[in-house]
Write a structure and sequence with these properties.
InterPro entries: Znf_SWIM. The protein is an alpha+beta fold and 159 residues long. It is built from seven helices and five strands; from the N terminus they run H-H-H-H-E-E-E-E-H-H-E-H. A five-stranded mixed β-sheet has the order 4-3-2-1-5. The chain binds zinc ion.
């Protein structure tokens, strides 16, 4: 059974690897949530992002962090709510293009979401979703009331 001894041919090993990937993703998600909680608390207390939290965020998000912080600085994040109680986020990208984000599933209508997050899986989230999470943690998200139809239209345009 020479073939079975190769790691790639062992179904148990494949399952284990699969389990590890899923387990890691859950762990990373928990660490990220914890980081945003700390950011929320520290920003409320001090009005700024501490160096420790910034370094930790940078470790997780790497090159996505600075552009996301720029979006927050430029007040590019708006939460759109409608009378029916639904809400979506709109982030105006650096080139002025508006993107629709759903934070619960980390969806964004931008190309980076499709290529880097979904396809290549080398990013946890795109800069727009990260900007929404940062903006919410800092309490600087703008709010806008829109109609039920408008939110429905935005959701129906999602891919
Ligand atoms: Zn995006």
């Amino acid at each position: 059974m020479a073939a079975a001894s190769k790691p790639g041919n062992d179904p148990m090993l494949i399952n284990n690897a699969d389990f590890c990937v899923k387990h890691n993703a859950q762990l990373i998600a928990a660490v990220i949530e914890q980081l945003f909680e700390e950011l929320k608390y520290s920003f409320k207390e001090t009005g700024k992002v501490s160096d420790d939290i910034l370094a930790a965020l940078n470790n997780v998000f790497d090159a996505t962090l600075v552009p996301a912080l720029d979006l927050v600085d430029n007040c590019s994040v708006t939460v759109l709510t409608c009378p029916a109680g639904r809400h979506v986020y709109q982030v105006i990208g650096s080139s002025g293009t508006p993107y629709t984000c759903l934070v619960s599933c980390q969806y964004c209508s931008c190309p980076a979401y499709r290529f880097s997050v979904l396809k290549k899986e080398d990013h946890v989230m795109c800069k727009h979703v990260l900007a929404v999470k940062l903006s919410n943690a800092m309490g600087v998200t703008k709010e806008l009331q829109v109609t039920d139809a408008e939110i429905g239209r935005m959701i129906s345009q999602m891919e």
